[in-house]
Model the fold of this input.
Amino acid sequence: MRTITWNSDLSVGIDEIDAEHQVLIKYLNDMFVACSVGQGPAVLSKTLCWMQRYSREHFAHEEDLMHKLGYPGIDEHRQLHVELVSDLDDLIDELENGVSHDLSNKTMQLLEDWLLQHILVEDKKIGRYIGAID
Ligand SMILES: [Fe+2]
Ligand SMILES: [Fe+2]
Done:
């Protein structure tokens, strides 16, 4: 079964942000588990709604932190958050029209790319900016 294991490569060097990323990854892993036992369609919509709510809180928290740190890339980063929330909205809309196993698989791939790419590329820049990671 496919799941994402937290490791130091995913750390942005800021404990509170890492803790929130771990919660988001847990939502993703819960959905991987559900899909692997044929429960994807039943679980996906509900978990995505939780994930969406948590993501909004997490993004607001990150933006607040960037503001306090005087992070120079804040506007671009904030715009990426807007796009991520919009992607989640689109996924939720699509799932409301009926969830097939194909759509479950597509959703999981999108979410994995969505979450991991943003953490590894964009969120890590904040940690680097404050010298918390290399
Ligand atoms: Fe971010
Ligand atoms: Fe983040």
